[in-house]
Amino acid sequence: MSSDPTQPGATPSPSAPSGATPANPAAARPAPKSKDPLHGVTLERIVKELAEEYDWTGLADRVPVRCFQFDPSLKSSLTFLRKTPWARAKVERLWIDLQRRH
Question: Residue 39 and residue 96: Cα distance in Å, rounded?
């Protein structure tokens, strides 16, 4: 069998010419870091950290919603916050403020 690359069934040379650009130029440079402080942070993590920092009573003082005031739990809080955008926004804002202080 011949090693002539013009022959049918021949494989191209594995080395790319110098100065060639990669097939995916985005892969050559790192992805820009998101400026969103909530990027990659789950609601569960946010609620856990706030409950640790302020306790459920303190959290209820800062965001007065029933899921924090009466028999609070992580599960009930997540369920409520996922269905209630205005309350979720308050909780996320409180967490962002907490992160900036620490």
Answer: 11
Residue 32 lies inside a defined structural domain of this protein: no
CATH at 43: 1.10.720.30
The DSSP string of 67-82 is HHHSS--HHHHHHHHH
Concatenating the DSSP letter of every residue in 38-55 gives TTT--HHHHHHHHHHHHH
pTM for the full model? Answer: 0.68
Which pLDDT tens digit goes with each residue over 28-76?
A: 677 678 888 999 999 999 999 999 999 999 999 999 999 999 999 999 9
43 near 88, Cβ under 8 Å? yes
HSE (CB half, 13 Å, CA atoms) of 15? Answer: 3
Contact call for residues 88 and 73 (beta carbons, < 8 A): no
Domain hosting residue 60, numbered range: 37-101
